[in-house]
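Our preliminary data section would be incomplete without showing what the modeling component actually yields. Below, a chain of 124 amino acids is followed by its predicted structure, encoded as tokens that our downstream tools consume directly.
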Amino acid sequence: MFEGMVKHLFKVIKGIEFNEAFPRLTYAQAMEEYGSDKPDLRFGIEFTDLTGKAKGKGFSVLDSAAYIVAIVAPGCSEYTRKQLDELTDFVKKPQVGAKGLIYIRYNIDGTLKSSVDKFYSQEI
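Predicted structure:
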């Protein structure tokens, strides 16, 4: 019903006609892939479940976590330590709700740098 109304309003008010269907996600999909029941799909930033790959490596923070996700941030591999610290502060805000941030940078030269290097090899 909502999709039909929106398409009608765009056609009548703006003269724009949509023929394709709006993307649909189940609640479970939205929460699993974006961590929100109202994701902003414009940026294509999806969660990647790393729970099975990151647990059991001797890093107690992740070994005791129920769910571990990664968010790919294209173009951020050259962030400075200060910029990474600012991101960490941001995710700790009550509105976001994370307890912290672990980064893994895929550098331009193909090497990896992580805040938890001592627990995870380059291969892992």
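The beta strands are 47-49, 69-71, 104-106, 112-114. The longest helix spans residues 2-14. Preliminary results of this kind motivate Aim 1 of the renewal.
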